[in-house]
Design a protein that fits this description.
The complex is a heterodimer of chains A (299) and B (68). Chain A is mainly alpha-helical and 299 residues long. Chain A has eight helices and no strands. In chain A, helix 2 (44-79) packs antiparallel against helix 3. Chain A starts with a helix and ends with a helix. In chain B, helix 2 packs across helix 3 (30-37).
């Protein structure tokens, strides 16, 4: 088996088992804290300790998600094909990873709402939904790790590629998902009319966090390109696909941005003046990655 | 008019070389070779010459024009 896959797989397995234990712990801790908060009882010192351990668990979970992400990328690279299960696991992993920042925000909100004597039902609903998403990803990842340690040895005997194509394709899938989630979240901000005062604290966190998986795979792709030591970064067909995707993105994004400009001009929503750039960023990421994938498969 | 090719046959005649091995030798991705063979991608003159040189043939022996 490839050395980097073996190392990242082992790290993922250990951190996965550790953070899975923490996930079980979170279920119990959430239940305990929720009962106290709902009954408006004093939280006391034990709740603070529970909260601290939840925080440590989130850190380990963050580490697990990053190592699992690279394990999946290495696995795709060695198998040289995009499998359905692999793609589902990758998508679930990214969604679960983005939910981690939601977990942090929800826990922070619960603390503030509790002190202000407000209801925390929405935050708890989110936390339990996120727990289900995390659990699903953990199960999928354990299946992936089992098959990675069990079967990749056979596939590894296939010819190696001098010029990468699989990471290029996977990066487009990641771009589509990140763009889609980003657009969804931006839409949610507009629909719920989040105030600009709150937005200025949310924006610097949610944009980079949603874009992080795409940034990581692009970084890995750059490393691969440096290792290839070939004069051309893309080959002819990739250049053509990227060019066509660029033109498609330009043509489709203009009407969308025009609508946004008109909405902003008429000041229908105050928040649009703040979210136009994240909207643009996620829209072009979705369109660009989607068109590359379309052209590389179809044309 | 379309561009036809004998790339698959050339690979077969050349010790049944795989798409990946040919792609590595030419410096392109396997998907590019696959797309050329299926007529989905028209290669540049440079790439056509590289392929011809690899198989020891002329460009016309590998690529030809197909009338509609």
């Amino acid at each position: 088996m490839d050395k980097k896959l073996k190392i990242s797989g082992s790290i993922s397995l250990v951190s996965g088992l550790l953070s899975f234990g923490w996930l079980i712990y979170n279920v119990i801790a959430y239940q305990y804290i929720r009962t106290k908060i709902t009954n408006l009882e004093e939280l006391g010192a034990i709740a603070e300790i529970l909260g601290m351990y939840i925080g440590i668990g989130l850190l380990i979970s963050f580490f697990f998600h990053v190592s699992a992400f690279f394990t999946m990328i290495f696995r795709f690279q060695i198998l040289k094909k995009v499998t359905g299960l692999g793609l589902i696991a990758l998508f679930m992993g990214i969604i679960s990873f983005i939910c981690l920042i939601g977990d942090l925000a929800a826990l922070h909100d619960i603390g503030n709402q509790y002190e202000a004597g407000l209801t925390t039902n929405y935050e708890w609903t989110y936390l339990y939904l996120a727990l289900i998403i995390h659990m699903l990803f953990y199960v999928l990842m354990f299946i992936m790790l089992y098959s990675t340690f069990g079967s990749v040895k056979v596939h590894y005997k296939t010819e190696s590629a001098a010029k990468d194509e699989i990471i290029f394709i996977i990066a487009q899938y990641v771009g589509i998902l990140c763009g889609f989630i980003g657009l969804g979240f931006t839409g949610f901000i507009v629909a719920t009319q989040v105030s600009p005062q709150v937005l200025q604290y949310i924006l610097p966190f949610y944009c980079p966090f949603i874009l992080l998986p795409y940034g990581l795979i692009c970084l890995y792709w750059i490393i691969i390109k440096r290792k290839e030591r070939l004069p051309e970064v893309y080959d002819e067909k990739q250049w053509r696909d990227v060019s066509k995707a660029g033109l498609t993105t330009l043509l489709i994004s203009i009407p969308f941005m025009a609508i946004l400009y008109i909405l902003n001009y008429q000041k229908m929503y105050g928040t649009i003046s703040m979210i136009w750039f994240p909207f643009y960023l996620f829209l072009i990421l979705l369109l660009f990655s989607g068109s590359i994938l379309y052209f590389s498969n179809r044309m | 008019m379309k561009l036809g090719n004998n790339l698959k046959r050339c690979r077969f005649d050349h010790d049944n070389i795989s798409q990946q091995a040919l792609a590595n030798a030419i410096g392109v991705t396997r998907l590019t070779i696959h797309s050329i063979e299926n007529g989905k991608f028209v290669p540049s003159t440079l790439l056509a010459l590289k392929l011809a040189r690899f198989f020891g043939k002329t460009v016309e022996e590998i690529f030809f024009v197909v009338d509609d």
